[in-house]
Automatic annotation (TrEMBL), chain A:
Organism: Candidatus Hakubella thermalkaliphila
Alphabetized InterPro entries for the sequence: Beta-grasp_dom_sf, Mopterin_synth/thiamin_S_b, ThiS/MoaD-like
Pfam families, per database record: ThiS (PF02597)
Lineage, broadest ranks: Bacteria, Bacillati, Actinomycetota, Actinomycetota incertae sedis, Candidatus Hakubellales
Protein name stated in the entry: Sulfur-carrier protein
TrEMBL record, chain B:
Lineage: Bacteria, Bacillati, Actinomycetota, Actinomycetota incertae sedis, Candidatus Hakubellales
Gene3D superfamilies cross-referenced by the UniProt entry: NAD(P)-binding Rossmann-like Domain
GO molecular function: ATP binding; nucleotidyltransferase activity; sulfotransferase activity; thiosulfate-cyanide sulfurtransferase activity; ubiquitin-like modifier activating enzyme activity
The protein, known as: Molybdopterin-synthase adenylyltransferase
A Pfam family this chain is assigned to: ThiF
Protein keywords: ATP-binding, Nucleotide-binding, Nucleotidyltransferase, Transferase
Length: 76, 271
């Protein structure tokens, strides 16, 4: 399984409205595919980590990956 | 050490004893001019620690007055300060702590009209503001004026901190080129925030500011610190300058300041 964690307010604006998701691995599945499926705007869901490292949108996800998505926050 | 009074030598003795600081470093701190954007959740601990450390001049920009609902986290203000301008109660608290510090209050919001003039007099900007329009305005202004921002931001149980040093590391727009669409991001007022959270992020900002002033250690340039209070997780990820960045990139398209509030109707998130 691929574990996805959405930070800050992203769960509230995502399709499944959940903070943590488990997704079955598929051939050719990218970080961007997950964000699009979750209907997250790409200009906000820009900082993505997989297994603790920052990755680009075309990163190919594989079984066991842990993906985390961080949006900008503005509170002070 | 001749420049310091006996009391000052005692006051800063735990700094001076550090080989990384010493009398020379303490003098650097005294000669530094730091601008705080916001005297709220982040600005309170950041400003208070920087004042305690002996920063020479501390500018404080805030347009708000102290509200009862601020006091669960904004530790520069007291119950008796409710209704007073935040810059005034912040100044009072800081002078009580350390009369060596020159406090310059700016009881105003940052706008494209005043930002360049305000930041001009300072070496370093500590950003603890509470809304996206000001964050973008300040970022663009600091890239144009070549000022380093020690950035912090919070949301509910999560915080972020980094240092934006123009043309050396990335800027805010390298990370997030445009503000989120209006209405997408709930404010702290709507979402709530656990009061200790800004204390942690604001303290990290004060530490990063002092490291930059002292030129010691590895500041958070090109690195984004992410804190998840519920999980008690700190993560650091590398962030790079984007050559296509609209403001600090090789061919910038933003060459003038933008007041986002005016044209996109983004309601500032008050924290």
């Amino acid at each position: 399984m691929i574990e996805v964690k959405l930070y800050a307010y992203l769960p509230n604006i995502s399709k499944s409205r959940r903070r943590e998701l488990k997704i079955s691995p598929e051939e050719g599945l990218t970080v961007q595919d997950i964000l699009v499926r979750e209907q997250l705007p790409l200009q906000i869901a820009r900082v993505v980590m997989v297994n603790g490292r920052r990755v680009e949108m075309d990163y190919l996800l594989k079984d066991g990956d842990e993906m985390a998505v961080f949006p900008p926050v503005a509170g002070g | 050490m001749a420049d310091f009074t006996e009391d000052q030598i005692i006051r800063y003795s735990r700094h001076i004893v550090l080989p990384q600081v010493g009398g020379k470093g303490q003098k650097k701190i005294r000669e530094s001019k730091v601008l705080l954007i916001g005297a709220g959740g982040l600005g309170s601990p950041a400003g208070y620690y920087l004042a305690a450390a002996g920063v020479g001049r501390l500018g404080i920009v805030d347009q708000d007055e102290v509200d009862l609902s601020n006091l669960q986290r904004q530790i520069l203000h007291r119950t008796a300060d409710i209704g007073r301008p935040k810059t005034h109660s912040a100044r009072d608290r800081i002078i009580e702590l350390n009369p060596d510090v020159e406090v310059v209050p700016y009881q105003t919001s940052l706008t494209s009209d005043n930002v360049m003039e305000i930041i001009e007099d300072y070496d370093l900007v500590v950003n603890g503001c509470d809304n996206f329009p000001t964050r973008y305005l300040l970022n663009d202004a600091c890239v144009l004026a070549d000022k380093t921002i020690v950035d912090g931001s919070i949301f509910v149980f999560e915080g972020q901190a980094t240092v934006f040093k123009p043309h050396v590391g990335p800027c805010y727009r390298c990370l997030y080129p445009e503000p989120p669409p209006p209405g997408m991001v709930p404010s702290c007022q709507e979402a709530g925030v656990l009061g200790v959270l800004p204390g942690i992020i604001g303290s990290i900002q004060a530490m990063e500011a002092l490291k930059l002033i002292l030129e010691i250690g590895e500041p958070l340039i090109g690195r984004l610190l992410l804190y998840d209070a519920l999980a008690t997780e700190f993560r650091i990820l590398k962030i790079r300058r984007d050559p296509d960045c609209p403001v600090c990139g090789d061919n910038p398209t933003i060459t003038e300041l933008i007041d986002y509030e005016e044209f996109c109707g983004l309601r500032p998130a008050r924290c």
